[in-house]
Amino acid sequence: MIWGLVNLVFGLLVVAALVAGLLWVSGRRLPLAPARGPVRVLGHVYLGGRRGLSLVRLGSSVLVLGVTDHQVNLVATVAEPELVDALEHAAAQPLVDPERWQAARERFGDLLEAYRRRGRKGDGGR
Length: 126
Prior knowledge:
Blueprint: H1 2-26, E1 39-48, E2 51-58, E3 61-67, E4 72-78, H2 81-92, H3 98-122
């Protein structure tokens, strides 16, 4: 009984070590904490085909970067304080208004319930 537990724990540790090793080798480290300091990613938009645009806050400016598998290109630099603040504020906002999202969820639930009731009537009242 105890040896089975020891084997299980040892096996789990080996698997965890292999996964961590693969992540380390591939260069994709697990995020330990949110980025602090002068560099912060505000957002990223995928354009398809492993390409995208990223907004990166660097000190008092925002960099617009074109990102692919093999390189990163500077597309534009935004240094005007009003635009930098507007970009940072926009990046902090949710993509969907929570109230509208809740209303859509409730409406979908109502439609689903109506569909289920209609299906029960067609099943002979089961």
